[in-house]
Protein 1
Amino acid sequence: MAMRPFHRTILTRMGVLTAHPASFVIVAVYVAAWLIFDPGSFDWHAIATIATWSMTLIIQRAEHRDTQAIHAKTRRAAPCRRPGAQ
C-alpha cells in the first residue's frame, strides 16, 4: 500500500521538527518539570526513558543532516532545468 501524500507530508514535517535543536530544550524542560513536581518517581526507569528520548533525538538529528547533505549534493550535481531552456 502506497503512502498518501498527506501522510508523507506530516511525517516529513515531524521529522524536521524532531531534528530541530529546540527538541532537546523541550526534553530538558520536561525533565525539569518531572523533577520539580514528582522527584520521588524519578528512578532508574525515568533515567532510561530520558536516555532513550535523547538518543532518539540525536539519531534523528544526524539522519536529518545526512539527508540534507545528500539533497544538496544532488541539486548541485544535477541542476533542474526548465523545459525548453538551453
Protein 2
Amino acid sequence: MSELQLAVVRALWELGEGTVSDLLAQVVRNGRELASTTVATVLRRLEKDGWVEHRERGRQFVYRARVSREQATGGVLDRVTRAFFGGSIPALVSRLLESDQVSSEDLALMRALIARKEGRNES
C-alpha cells in the first residue's frame, strides 16, 4: 500500500465511513493536501484491491474500510518479519531495540507486555 493509499485508509479508520468530501477533509486535517479527484481515484483503486467498499446514499458513494487497522498492521508486520528477518521475531525485536528512538519508558512497556504474554503480572 502506498503512502497516499495509507493516508486515505487511515482517514476511513478514523471516521468509520465517509464520502469523498468527508475523507478529503480528514486527510487535510491529518496534514496532507489532496484534490478530491485524487481521493476518489485512490478509493476506486483501494476498492478494486479489496481494502474498502462502498454503498450508495442518494447520488454519493459512502466508503468504509473492509480491513481493520489491526488486520492491516498484523499483515504488514508478518510480511516484514518474513521478508527482512527470515520469519524471526527475535531478529525483528533486536533491530527495533537498536534504534536510538527507544526510550526507557518504551523498554518498561515492552517488559510489561512480555510479562503479560508469559502470564505474569509485572507493574
